[in-house]
């Protein structure tokens, strides 16, 4: 390792020009993958680190990225944050992380605070703020920004989203292929963008199979769900009960697992959109349509670095696929109707009202 290595040292070791080294560090496109790999190996071998103070004086911005998520404690956003932080560090920047909270006012305050800190760019998981009406100095002509997981309202900017509709459509079709026609949809906050798209995927899969949508099979969990009788019980005790459940996110999946366990219902098939920590440890392990939050984070950082370094091309919209993992719970076949009706009459707890999603 060379003491205080410079760009020139990296260029000499990798056999390229100083300009090429700079382009690799700044994540610019004008470098082949082989050359970029050679430069990164030289950087690692020499222990070279970019000088953030010099770059800050040159650009007029702090060498920091701002990341705004709905809640830092969510495992999905934690994995995304880790990937963004690692990518930023490799580019010689540090990361400021903030939680947007539960109101537009909190979301606006967090973003303004990061802008006042002169961050070089922002990665935002939009929640409640109508960005097109706010006229914040972000996006084209302002601080570069990339939106992740959900698109912004009325604002054209780079986005990195998951193909929610396609993932749930495939998951629901999988349950149908295993003989299920009474499939419950369990989610949280169906008015949110990602849950809307997943609900559309569920409805579309039913339509593809000629199965009529039944609003009585929709379960909506809320943060205070544990203070009420089990919400899933209603769909399991209908005259024509559910034989399978499609849970639309991690929180809903955990609630479904908790309820099925408390009811000792090992006969109900379950597919979860989102993997979760105990999914593989359950009996049977939970079949999932898995997102990749780390890939989302890396992709968003890559797009943001390009904008910071001068990319003025039209907004890019990246749509990432999910990975379907068959583990056992999604492959349970339905019991006979007579058995299910017998199970429904065993004095299970009374359900809470189920709110159907908006049309």
**Count of β-strands:** 12
Largest sheet: 6 strands, parallel
Instruction: Compute the number of structural domains.
Output: 3
Categorize the overall geometry: elongated
- CATH class call of the largest domain: Alpha Beta
What's the CATH topology name of the largest domain? Rossmann fold
Helical amount: 25-40%
Mean pLDDT: 84
Q: What is the CA-CA span between the terminal residues?
A: 63 Å
**Second-tier CATH architecture of the largest domain:** 3-Layer(aba) Sandwich
Put simply, the count of helices is 13
Sequence of strands across the biggest β-sheet: 2-1-3-4-5-11
Strand content: 15-25%
| Rounded Rg | 24 Å
Determine the CATH superfamily of the largest domain. Answer: Response regulator
What are the segments in which pLDDT stays under 50 over at least 5 consecutive residues? 56-61, 340-359
Coarse structural class: alpha/beta
Note the run of SSEs as H and E. Answer: HHHHEHEHEHEEHEHEHEHEEHEEH
If you had to describe this structure to a student in words, what would you say it looks like?
By secondary structure, the chain is of the alpha/beta class. It folds into 3 domains: 7-46, no CATH class; 54-156 and 293-321, Response regulator (Rossmann fold, 3-Layer(aba) Sandwich); 164-286 and 327-344, Rossmann fold (3-Layer(aba) Sandwich), CATH 3.40.50.2300. Helix content is 40%, strand content 15%. It contains 13 helices and 12 strands. The strands form 2 sheets. The chain has a 6-stranded parallel sheet with strand order 2-1-3-4-5-11, sandwiched between helices. A 6-stranded mixed sheet has the order 7-6-8-9-10-12, with helices on both faces. α1 (7-14) packs across α2 (18-25) and α1 packs across α3. The longest helix has 16 residues, at 75-90. The radius of gyration is 24 Å and the shape is elongated. Mean pLDDT is 84; it is low at 56-61 and 340-359.
């Amino acid at each position: 390792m060379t003491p205080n290595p410079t760009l020139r040292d990296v260029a000499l070791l990798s056999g390229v020009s100083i300009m090429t080294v700079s382009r690799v560090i700044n994540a610019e496109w004008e470098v082949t993958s082989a050359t970029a790999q050679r430069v990164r190996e030289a950087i690692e071998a020499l222990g070279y680190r970019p000088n953030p103070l010099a770059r800050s004086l040159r650009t007029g911005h702090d060498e920091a990225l701002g990341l705004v998520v709905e809640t830092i404690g969510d495992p999905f956003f934690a994995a995304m944050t880790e990937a963004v932080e690692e990518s930023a560090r490799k580019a010689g920047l540090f990361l400021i992380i903030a939680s947007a909270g539960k109101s537009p006012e909190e979301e606006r305050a967090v973003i303004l605070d990061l802008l006042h800190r002169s961050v070089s760019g922002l990665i935002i998981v939009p929640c409640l703020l109508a960005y097109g009406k706010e006229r914040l100095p972000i996006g084209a002509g302002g601080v570069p920004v990339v939106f992740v997981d959900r698109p912004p309202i009325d604002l054209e900017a780079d986005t990195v989203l998951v193909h929610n509709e396609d993932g749930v459509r495939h998951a629901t079709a999988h349950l149908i292929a295993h003989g299920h026609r009474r499939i419950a949809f369990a989610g949280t906050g169906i008015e949110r963008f990602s849950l809307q798209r997943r609900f559309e995927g569920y409805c579309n899969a039913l339509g593809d199979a000629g199965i009529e949508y039944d609003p009585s099979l929709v379960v909506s969990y809320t943060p205070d769900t544990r203070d009420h009788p089990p919400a899933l019980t209603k769909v399991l005790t209908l005259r024509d009960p559910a034989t399978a459940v499609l849970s639309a996110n991690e929180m809903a999946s955990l609630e479904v697992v908790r309820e099925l366990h408390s009811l000792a219902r090992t006969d109900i098939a379950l597919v979860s959109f989102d993997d979760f920590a105990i999914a593989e440890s359950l009996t049977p392990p939970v079949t999932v349509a898995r997102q990749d939050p780390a890939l989302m984070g890396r992709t968003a950082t890559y797009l943001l670095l390009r904008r910071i370094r001068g990319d003025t091309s039209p907004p890019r919209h990246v749509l990432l696929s999910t990975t379907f993992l068959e583990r056992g719970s999604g492959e349970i076949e339905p019991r006979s109707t007579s058995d299910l009706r017998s199970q429904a009459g065993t004095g299970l707890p009374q359900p809470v009202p189920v709110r159907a999603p908006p049309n």
